[in-house]
């Protein structure tokens, strides 16, 4: 069964690689990302299926000042009807939390999603004018701890296991200028809030998160991290 899964995922990764090669032409013309960066991501499409023995043990330990009962109460409310975080978190906590993001933000997504939803558009984000982000300094720490192991990103950021391996690798986007992006705590009503979302501004892996408005693509610094067979970075 696992061998069939490997073949299926490898086929998806090959297709993602084709899309990434097409993206080389787009970005080379636009001058946003070099052809060398894009092609390096496109040609490395081997799949790694992580197992329990290889699963990451490193975690952030961030946690909002909310009781388990309060967390479950908020999660029980249907998405789209959840309260604004200002109704259950004090202003001092919110200000302190958002201060973590003032020196730069980062966001990540699968490479095939990046090609499909970002390459041909002027902005990054969802249809409801929202984009989940983390502090750039935190993403730097995750990258260092991961050392190319995409499973660490998945665990830390609240993605399902195997997500990035099944989507051709990971794309990291950094933004330095955040002044006019309307940084705020997520409410859980955002289009990008999945079943792993928790109230209070931290992912299920304990990483600080916030939400911004749509981000102009011209502000992005893009890094591509392919899924390599040995789990290492190129």
Question: What can you tell me about this protein's structure?
Answer:
By secondary structure, the chain is of the alpha+beta class. The protein has one domain. The protein has helices at 2-30, 35-43, 68-75, 91-99, 111-117, 136-146, 150-157, and strands at residues 105-110, 123-124, 131-135, 170-175, 210-212, 215-216, 221-225. The chain has a five-stranded antiparallel β-sheet. The protein has a two-stranded antiparallel ribbon with strand order 2-6. α1 (2-30) runs antiparallel to α2 and α1 (2-30) crosses α5 (111-117). The two termini are 29 Å apart. Mean pLDDT is 76; it is low at 1-58 and 228-234.
Mean of the pLDDT scores? 76
Largest sheet: 5 strands, antiparallel
> What is the domain tally?
1
Radius of gyration: 18 Å
> In order across it, which strands form the biggest sheet?
5-3-1-4-7
Distance between the termini: 29 Å
Fraction in helix: 25-40%
Q: How large is the share of residues in beta strands? A: 5-15%
- Class based on secondary structure composition and strand pairing: alpha+beta
Unreliable spans are 1-58, 228-234
Order of helices and strands: HHHHEHEEHHEEEE
Shape: globular
Number of helices: 7
Q: Count all strands and give the number.
A: 7
